Amino acid sequence: MSGLGFMSADEIRSSMASRRTRVVLAADQKSISEISHSLSQAGPSICMLKTHVDGVVDFEYTRWMDEVIRPARDMGILIFEDRKFADIGHVSKIQMLGHQRIARWADIVTAHRISGPDVIDGIHSAWEEVGRKGSVLVLAQMSSSENLLDARYTEKTVASCKGMPGVCGFIGNGSNPRSIASLRDAVGSEKLILTPGINFDPNQSVMGQRYGHPTEAIRSGADAVIVGSGIIRSDSISSAAAQYANATMDDI
Known about the structure:
Blueprint: H1 9-19, E1 23-26, H2 32-42, E2 48-51, H3 61-74, E3 78-85, H4 89-96, E4 108-111, H5 118-129, E5 135-139, H6 151-161, E6 167-171, H7 177-187, E7 192-195, H8 214-220, E8 224-227, H9 229-232, H10 237-247
Parallel strand pairs: 1-2, 1-8, 2-3, 3-4, 4-5, 5-6, 6-7, 7-8
């Protein structure tokens, strides 16, 4: 694709280093006010805000921009919409430009490789249409139990995507340090690895999610860890976010 170019892994790593944290806050919450509150409390300790905007029951574009996106940008936090696009390129472009206007505010989105490489082109075409650039994280592994992203699928996904300039990296399995290390060997050093399935307390697991320790994930090769319940369900969001940030800083 021509035009605006892509947000690179190096740009994202530079942003993480300047903020002195590798924590991505998974704000998997139902209302704009809940997400805004979590952002205001955790903001100093996170490098990205990860959203599932289609789960926000009171979504309204102007409020979303005013109460979530602009405050995050003011703090220098990247916006990561975990949409997991998995359709053909044309449909993915439509979804990026649709009701929630993801292309206008997300810096990073997730996609599955299963539908073919055109999904990446469709996503970037939407960013180009609105005069922005971003990048895609491709799901190479998942942390949920009994998922179908086996070792062969991971290998084929990485091999087909790691040379794409529009892909900044991959999603790995944060609950298993050996899986992260194996993924890093396959990916090499150029692309990012971000890992969900991170929590100091593995007993918080629900609905098949599995958890690993943030420091182990970083030492095994993750660039950043995605933390949800360990922060947003804590007694003090700000304190918990700071604790997770400290646990990710050994190798920066």
